[in-house]
Amino acid sequence: MPLPVFFILLTVILNAMGIGLILPVMPDLIVEVTGSGIASAAVWGGILSASFAVMQFLFAPLVGNLSDAFGRRPVMLLSLLAMALDYIVMALAGSIWLLLAGRIFGGITAASNATATAYMADISTPAEKARNFGLIGAGFGVGFVFGPMLGGLLAEYGTRAPFYAAAALSFANMCLGAAVLRETVTDRTRRAFDLRRANPFGAFRAVGRLPDLTALLWVFFFFQVATMVYPAIWAYFTTERFGWSPGLIGISLAVYGVSIAVVQGALVRPAIRAMGERRTVIFGLGVEVISLVILGLITNGTAVLFLIPVTAIGAIGMPALQGIMSRLTPDNAQGELQGVLTSVTSIAMILAPVVMTQTFAAFTAADAAIYLPGAPFLLAAALMAVSLALFRRRVTPAIA
How far apart are CA 65 and CA 158, in angstroms? Predict the structure, then answer.
């Protein structure tokens, strides 16, 4: 494996480990600093996620355009340093307001995954893009295997221990990148910085002018809103529905990580070879719809653990969708595209945590007319169905 590809995969793995480390303890941490119950903690969790996403939406195109103009290497290294500092702030936070401040700062500076994806696009031929984006997804899955497991173990030492571990991983990753990362933006592909493209609305207009991308952006948006139900709700849902401990929540996330790694690392390329990119996207979205409906209605925690690998099969569609979008974008605008996709993801992260956690609270409160902790998953299934219908209607085989 070429060294640049290895470093990008390691970056994604360590980033995912940092995210996975803190997920199992977030409900307990929010309860600790607010003194509230689990339903209220879920609402605050949604607010924290949304604040991060608002900042990421506003600043992601700026970061993407900076990487097109000045290179992927400095942007990636600075974002990794900022991520480490953000985890330190959250580790020291004694109030919900300091946690909120940490999430705002983290959202402004978060760029490492988007820049890593742009870097992968730089070093990939058109035929390799979907496969290599699948490797990124697999790396994220591998990180999710170890992150939640380690987070669950570290939770035994207090709610702050996982944040210190995540900070250490991010800083170590930055040091490694400084030693081995080479620049991929050349004089041929470098593009002068333009402030008009660096704001989110200007970036959307610029990318929207590329043929056939508008429909794909909407497909990507509805997909992201739907799948945000997992990070927004999973810890709260499994605590409320099945009484799972942080350790078991970590194990369940690890099972999901293993499944994602297998699907995106081993199945994407054969699936695209057998079905083509368009049909692979359709298959993945269809599996997601069915999985979300089942999760919305299931009442057996053991059955959920067995279902997790099946739900992960739906992840096969996203690398194919990213591959289609990247092929439709000029080489000197790959950073801008990834910045826009990050902004789209950020919009989803703004809307989904608030909507999903409010839905969860409404259906789990003491005075709820209907007790249904899985209601957010049913809402997500409806949104995923919209994504599937839009893709089938607007994306023809000639485009894909």
Answer: 40
